[in-house]
Structure prediction request, 352 residues.
Amino acid sequence: MTARELDAAGITDPSLRAAYAVCRRLNARHGRTYFLATRLLPADRRAAVHALYGFARYADDIVDDLGTAATPGERGEALSALERQWRRAVRGERVTQPVVRAAADTRARYGIGAHHFADFLASMRSDLTVGAYATYADLRAYMHGSAAVIGLQMVPVLGTVGPRAEAEPYAADLGVAFQLTNFLRDVGEDLDRGRVYLPADLLAAHGVDRDLLLWSRLTGCRDARITAALRAAAALTRKVYRAAEPGIARLDPVSAPCVRTAFVLYGDVLGAIERDGYAVVHRRAAVGRRRRAAVALRGLAGALAARHGPRPAARGDGPPTAPWRTDPRPGGGPAATGGGAGATGRRGKDTR
Prediction:
């Protein structure tokens, strides 16, 4: 976290600043699309986005990291330890885990509903035991906690030009669209984790099941049935993007370029998958650096124009516009003065 961003957000406590810095490093290292888009936000809102991403990423790594030999039981205990720290932080108690401390501070500053974090952690826990989803409805129920709530957490930070409740369904859909994109991009890696995040009924409609996917992954051989199923999953994902897109116009104009940039770049991932012949069972598709830079420059132009143009009238449920006072509670966080329920998510995972 840069000193400028922390100063702009009114975060003065040295240990809390250090906690936010940990989250920023997680974002920079693992969420390149999110990190790039976040840089288009006004400086005073970036710390909160990094905190929310850092918490999501940290929990996701507990259950998903292929680089460790931890057993499901050990992963479950690590997740339980994170949950215990989170509950303490929400009660205002001081905690030592940096991402928990920063996320709890952000939650209090922006009045984000604690139930969104509880739903997220519940979905993370299900990853320890659930390896497939029979229907798209089943998958959507999982993605409410793993993706939609990420969008809902983001809305108070981004701000809106109308009632927050009108923007929230679109933000939830956008979180789902991003996660569906990640699911499609990561089919091969998820198979290595013992999971299939594409609905079984969608796969079966094209003659595909887990065994066929595993055969393709292990042998490197292609199958037209798998390609057809992946094409159908991409079409489903684009449908969710179309449902989410109108919500960008409901965001504070200074935040909209950030979300628009993420929207375009994630849509480009689908395009890259298509151009690569839906080979995601065997390799990841990626957006080229030149394209990423071009999209980011357009976003920057839009962000600068919004910051220097006329601002819409305040609606009373947007983001704070002045530094927050320090809360004397044991948790050391800020005093929450606003209400509202807690626009981007695979559970915040990106890594491109």
